[in-house]
Design goal:
By secondary structure, this protein is α+β, with helices and mostly antiparallel strands. It contains 8 helices and 13 strands. The strands form 2 sheets. Strands 1, 4, 5, 8, 9, 10, 12 and 13 form an 8-stranded mixed beta sheet that branches. Strands 3-2-11-6-7 form a 5-stranded mixed beta sheet. It starts with 16 loop residues before the first helix and ends in a 23-residue tail after the last strand.
């Protein structure tokens, strides 16, 4: 497999700045940063103060998103006990065993780089940026297993519109929280930390890209990326960065943890593609986890079945840019 290098994408392949800049019409006038920006939102009357989330907090009165699949969800106990979060260990059961004392309050997310309104969001501010909704998404992991999860959050583009990327911003770089004292098992995984990921700006602006604060009607458990994470349903699971603390808007394709660790296996794009096998695993089929760990095997769909994103990759060789 070949790997996309910086600068390889022609400018014609990037969504024109004007297309997404026009989406900022929800801002009124030239309101100042901070609370004035929030007040300028046409849905400002919807916002109500919410306390910072603690693990297991119920998130009620959620709108049901039109982006949801109608498929049966994977049991919560399985999703929260069989997952990847390498900061807490490399075995699937390690995160649920080792993340219980992870401190997620207070929490903030810094937004930096090529934006006209850089700022640091508290967790309470993140909860107020847009109405929360439940989105039932399919997910496919490189190893061959898949799940269906009812996430809670809103489109990441709500945050993007607020900070206003400059014309030079072509990519978004994400960084997870890392504390070797709270996450001592991370050293044994062979990865470099903090965990970093990235998207093209037009990918990040797609409404399916979710800024996520909960699942199964509650705030996120520690082992699933508390208190805030990304969820990118048309890409393999490792693209959905957990415990988010830093977002940077940049001109060049950013480094990503797994692409640096093993570029022959983990490409920057990581779009679900049944025709491009991992060196160790076939991607043609997947094992949908069910009530027991062993579920049914089904055919893998291009973009994980999310055809809405296909136009983002028009003209690209998806074997080369895997």
């Amino acid at each position: 497999m070949l790997i996309k290098r910086r600068g390889d994408i022609r400018s014609s392949e990037i969504t024109p700045q004007s297309l997404y800049m026009n989406r900022r019409k929800f801002l009124i006038g030239t309101a100042a940063a901070g609370t004035a920006l929030l007040a300028a939102h046409p849905m400002a009357g919807w916002f109500e103060p919410r306390p910072a989330l603690a693990a297991g907090t119920q998130l009620g009165n959620l709108a049901k998103s039109a982006y949801s699949t109608s498929e049966a969800t994977t049991p919560r106990a399985l999703v929260t006990s069989y997952n990847n979060f390498y900061e807490f260990g490399s075995n699937k059961s390690d995160p649920s065993k080792n993340a219980g004392k992870f401190q997620t309050s207070p929490w903030s997310v810094s937004v930096e780089g090529g934006v006209t309104r850089p700022r640091t969001f508290t967790m309470d501010e993140i909860l107020k940026l847009a109405p929360l909704e439940e989105r039932v998404y399919r997910h496919r992991c490189v190893e061959g297993w898949s799940i269906v999860v009812p996430w809670i959050g809103y489109s990441f583009n709500a945050l993007v519109k607020l900070v206003q990327p400059t014309s030079k911003a072509r990519y978004v770089a994400f960084q997870s929280y890392y504390d070797p004292k709270q996450m001592p098992l991370a050293r044994s995984t062979g990865l470099d930390f903090p965990y970093v990921e990235g998207l093209r700006l037009d990918e990040a602006m797609h409404p399916l890209a979710l800024l996520c604060v909960g699942m199964y009607g509650e705030s996120l458990p520690n082992q699933d990326g508390a208190p805030v994470r990304m969820v990118i349903p048309w890409k393999y699971g490792f693209k959905s960065v957990k415990s988010l603390v830093r977002i940077r808007f940049v001109a060049d394709q950013p480094s990503t943890t797994w692409n640096v660790a093993n570029p022959g296996e983990y490409g920057f794009y990581a779009n679900v593609n049944p025709k491009v096998d991992d060196p160790r695993y076939s991607q043609a089929t997947e094992l949908r986890l069910g009530g027991s760990l062993l579920g049914k095997k089904i055919n893998t769909l291009i973009f994980n079945g999310y055809d809405q994103v296909a136009s983002l990759y028009t003209g690209m060789d998806l074997h080369k840019y895997f």
